[in-house]
């Protein structure tokens, strides 16, 4: 595929490789316009359907993961235009339908839609120069791609209110302490770390990885009892896979498992 606003590459040595998607509107700090979101959605769907890909990384440039929705594109929007076009829903929700793990490797600014994009990924790794925030309030609007819902689930109500109502930015260490990211690494090691995490995931059994992702996401959509019931059924179903037999017999014979992803 020839993309104009993103770059794609397939990296890694094993049977399952990593699909790397780099947001590439560097001059605009990767401001998210419709063209970019359309291309990101297409690339994600392509990798999700590709049996040779086990995990996906979404990243930006050193200065910005993404500085938010493209303000120059949004400035002239009116109500009926965004309502009828189903702005955001139309091309953002694709990310929520991806079944393979998606890692956000965040350097620089992850603001507004950029922070929301990172939160829609499954694992967020930050470079030490990363800054996270939801500054939409300064533009006379508010988060519109899930920020008011995913942020409190990630960092709690008090911090989410502070960030959304005052436009306070978090640095990488604050984001780690708040639970918005799971690792912080030096900027020059960001992609290396993301690829290492991805390689670990790619070396596991894909059905168990996909089901574990689905079960964790279900935690945000159901009661505890329902979520545990859902988890239990998925857990039971994994005893029908060849990979469960292989994983457990490899452990017992003290060898490395050879998963076949079935
Ligand atoms: N949209 C459009 N252009 C942008 C954006 C943006 N969000 N952010 C930066 N740019 C452009 C600048 O206009 C500038 O362009 P030019 O060189 O042509 O003047 C270029 O990127 C570099 O930016 P700066 O010169 O401002 O760089 P600084 O280092 O001085 O500042 C900042 C960096 C702090 C990141 C600053 O650019 C900034 O505050 N940007 C806006 C951040 C923001 O408000 N983000 C929220 C946007 S609203 C939003 O995301 C709503 C989400 C709704 C859902 C998403 C749907 C897609």
Helix content: 40-55%
Query: What is the average of the pLDDT values?
Result: 97
- The number of helical runs is 13
Small molecules bound in the structure, each named once: octanoyl-coenzyme A
Whole-angstrom Rg: 19 Å
Silhouette: globular
Unreliably modeled segments: none
For the biggest β-sheet, the strand order reads 1-2-3-5-7-10
Instruction: Supply the helix-strand structural class.
Output: alpha/beta
Q: How much strand content do the residues show?
A: 15-25%
Distance between the termini: 29 Å
One letter per element, helices H and strands E, the order comes to EEHEEHHHHEEHEEHHEHEHHHH
Q: Please summarize the sheet with the most strands.
A: 6 strands, mixed
User: How many E-type strands?
Assistant: 10
Task: Report on this structure.
The chain has 262 residues and is an alpha/beta fold. It has helices spanning 34-49, 71-74, 79-85, 89-92, 94-97, 113-120, 147-155, 157-166, 172-178, 190-202, 206-218, 224-237, 242-252, and strands at 6-11, 17-23, 53-59, 64-66, 102-106, 109-111, 123-127, 131-133, 170-171, 183-185. The strands form two sheets. Strands 1-2-3-5-7-10 form a six-stranded mixed β-sheet, with helices on both faces. The longest helix is centred in the first third of the chain and has 16 residues, at 34-49. The mean pLDDT is 97. The structure holds octanoyl-coenzyme A. Octanoyl-coenzyme A binds next to α2 and β6.
